[in-house]
């Protein structure tokens, strides 16, 4: 892929593509493998990738390979500014230094492992372990072996001139809900002890194919359920929340415990930890990257994406992992093929954003301690530091040539504009439960991938205490029942009539069309928002004092978002972050704008936090129900929980 800016074709990013999860003829749905290992092994792998993903289509004869085009966009060694520490270099810089023989993959990997040893704290702890607790487990031997193999390839290539993959020797962390072969994936809870991945997830497989060194799993919120997070400590001050649910990935990238990380988002779980820690993260459009091998939360919303220190790093990682995976994730077939080239370099000149119109949606209401501030422009709810950063950012973007203007956006409190996301309409009553438009889509999706059955089958292989914890988390209490059960949960998902599901899908596409129309009417290319509007709180129940009430709306729309730091508050020195948010498959457009911004204003993403001082752990290493302080429904990563709080 080339480094030049590429504007995606308009048609593929509209609402034509279905967002339902369905199995291809003769194949399997994208996570039908859940529970499928039981007949062979006697135990159920709740997270396991299916067959090796299909390779990207080769280029035309004589054209450079996709890997070669990515490598060609790396910065020249002569242009790389010397960083204070090896771990301070961006991924694209490390890739160039490794190719030039200025550093070895083993040196880089050991530098990150050393920081993990010094600043992470005890592993396998879902709670405050006294330090960052960004990594919940590592594969030290596997990482060092991969680094040694990378060094051997670098040495051999000096004689053979063989083509080397773009991420060769770069150390990564991967969210605890994503399959890494041979490691347990626990989704933030010891209730999933023994859930050993039989194969790499597609995204992990593609990282390895690109030469990445997998360090291990980064901690996530319990059952990926909270967007605030408390298991890890914030990268800038471990006494503050890190954002969730991909909290460890947000912390590790900024705290220099990994060069880059993979996060997962269902409703805010890449954007919120990126914002809280000042990382540069990309939440892709639904279908851009495969989610095969992910422990699912809500298929049809779930996406996997990169969390890094710079947007150009995140774009490089996304370039490697995106692409069709038809056998394992049919939703990847909805993306343009070939996908428009992801940018890796800033555009030249002082006004790279000339001709771009960035809209600030005035009906993108914020939530404060007083509730959702309907009728109040979002920027009017920001604290002094966030408002100053917001106004400064507007000026900076304008100085780069962009037209930055306020526009109405789409008010999802108006039923005429939102027939799906926050709609209070009841499409049916099934098993005593009212079915909302979003439930009409997501509950059948869960049913089709054996969401509840896979957990039940896995629980049957585990000790009684684990089984009880899983039942308590995933079972449903139907009207008239005294305790939750998997039978009730499965029954609800399986009994929603096809006509109701189709109506839910139609409404979702209507919402997408309505929001696109709001952009088109105002002449807006993409949007600028602040997901967090005030200094985040302490881990001891602080949470998010001011945040976007509809943080899950991009997931309902299936639209992408990129988060990047734009300042720091004047009290605790915590990051302030902005997000660009655009139509489906507009990743190249919004990422290019963020790269252009960081080229001219690098002081925010280049800043490094101070190293933490160890404190006493506040939780035992193994607690089956080690949940973060009671998560109110409006802060849940589960759309069926969070959206209910909006109704």
Please, could you describe this protein's structure?
The protein is α+β, with helices and mostly antiparallel strands. 31% of the residues lie in helices and 11% in strands. It is built from 18 helices and 16 strands. The strands form 3 sheets. The chain has an 11-stranded mixed beta sheet. It has a 3-stranded antiparallel beta sheet with strand order 9-8-14, with no helix packed on it. A hairpin with a 6-residue loop joins strand 15 and strand 16. Helix 4 runs antiparallel to helix 5 (140-160) and helix 7 packs parallel to helix 8 (271-277). The longest helix is centred in the last third of the chain and has 25 residues, at 498-522. The protein is globular. 60% of the residues are buried.
What's a concise summary of this model?
It contains 18 helices and 16 strands. By secondary structure, the protein is of the alpha+beta class. The strands form 3 sheets. The chain has an 11-stranded mixed sheet.
For the largest beta sheet, what order do the strands appear in spatially? 1-3-2-4-6-5-15-16-13-7-10
Structural class: alpha+beta
Can you count the helices?
A: 18
Helix content: 25-40%
> For the report, how would you describe the main beta sheet?
11 strands, mixed
How much of the sequence lies in strands comes to: 5-15%
